[in-house]
Amino acid sequence: MTVLAVGVATLAVGAVVGAGSSLAAGRTAEKIADRNAAIGRIQAVDTLARGEEEVQFVGLQKKAIKGEQVAAFAGQNVDLGSDVVSSVSLNTDLVIESEIESIRNNAARQAWGLAVGAQNVQFGGDVAKRQGVTQAVSSLLGGTANIALAAS
């Protein structure tokens, strides 16, 4: 085997190994991104569930607060059918419903952010895979050009 043949073979092997490495790196990056995106989607769903749990807790607090209000009014011999008691009860309902709406909105915003983040991670994995393919093709083309130069 001549020195030229050995050189050409080395260039060919280098190009193929480089291409294979680029493809493997792209596939690995894509798999990592897939897993991270899946985790982000799970976190988004979990955030909504935790928001609803908090809403349930606030709902229980509402019942306790309203019970304390009734007990306080009754302890002061205030007529529970009076306008004052109705007004306090209505205001309590409005404040707590506003709190519940805020909890749901915050959970929805956070879940949306996590879902968008998961999409971005997924896109990054897709790009990494394409870059691996592009680098593999480039390695093969560069290797082919080097072989042609060496052979001429």
Please render the helix and strand layout as text.
Layout: H1 3-75, H2 83-151
Helix pairs in contact: 1-2
Give the SSE order as H and E letters. Answer: HH
Strand count, sense and barrel status of the largest sheet are: none
Number of DSSP-assigned strands: 0
List low-pLDDT spans.
none
Number of helices: 2
Our measurement of the CA-to-CA distance between the termini, rounded to an integer number of angstroms, reads 17 Å
* Helix content bin: over 70%
CA-based gyration radius: 33 Å
Average pLDDT confidence is 93
Structural class: mainly alpha
Percent of residues in β-strands: under 5%
- Shape field: rod-shaped
Structurally, the number of domains stands at 1
Can you give a write-up of this model?
The protein has 152 residues and is an all-alpha fold. The chain has 2 helices and no strands. It has one domain (3-151). The model has no long low-confidence stretch (mean pLDDT 93).
Short description:
This protein is mainly alpha-helical. The chain is about 95% helix and about 0% strand.
Key descriptive features of the protein:
about 150 residues, mainly alpha, 2 helices
